[in-house]
Every structure is written in C-alpha cells, then in structure tokens.
Amino acid sequence: MIIELDMSSDIPIYVQLRNQIVKGIGKGELKADEKLPTVRQLAADAGVNTMTVSKAYQILKNEGFIRTDRRLGAFVADNIDMNKDFCEKLEAELELLSAEACITGMDKETFLNMCS
User: Ranges for the HTH gntR-type domain (predicted)?
Assistant: First the structure.
C-alpha cells in the first residue's frame, strides 16, 4: 500500500495517515494480521516525524483497527468489531454527508451508488 500525503492540506498529517491505513484495510490492501511498517520506517518513507506516525498508530489502536506488540511491532487487527460508538459515529457522519449531497443537488441514487 502506498501512502500519499498532502502536506498543504488543512487535514493534519497524522489524520491523513490514519485515514489511508483505514482505507487500505477496508479495500483489502491490508489484510488481518499483516505487519505494518515500524514507526521509524513509515516516518522515513513518508518524510514525516516519528511522533506523527506514532500518534496515527495510537489512534488506530484505540479504534481497534490495529494491535501492537512492543517487541514485534504493529499489525492489522484480526477481529475488528462494529461497536456502538462506531455505529453512532458512522450514522452522524453519513447524515452530514447526505445533507451536503442533497444541498449540492446530488440525487439519492447517485449518493447510494457512491456509498457502495
């Protein structure tokens, strides 16, 4: 999986890293139990500070997308659950996206096609 960061974006780099890894998991580019690059390796490859990568990994761990082992590194979690907090977050974000799509004139069918 290739990480592409937009250094001029208003979105913080650690959020961009988090989002790209989540997308990689969702698209099947990153498989359950697959080892992720070390913090230092990913920081060097992406040209960012190690603390930035560490923060992204910590968020991913807290959200249950990855698991870490001090000796072995970070891995894609093998049992990612859809809990109540996730469902509430998803519902709120979809509601906002749906409203924005409606305001800009997008029809329901197009919106649903984009969701799939």
Answer: 11-79
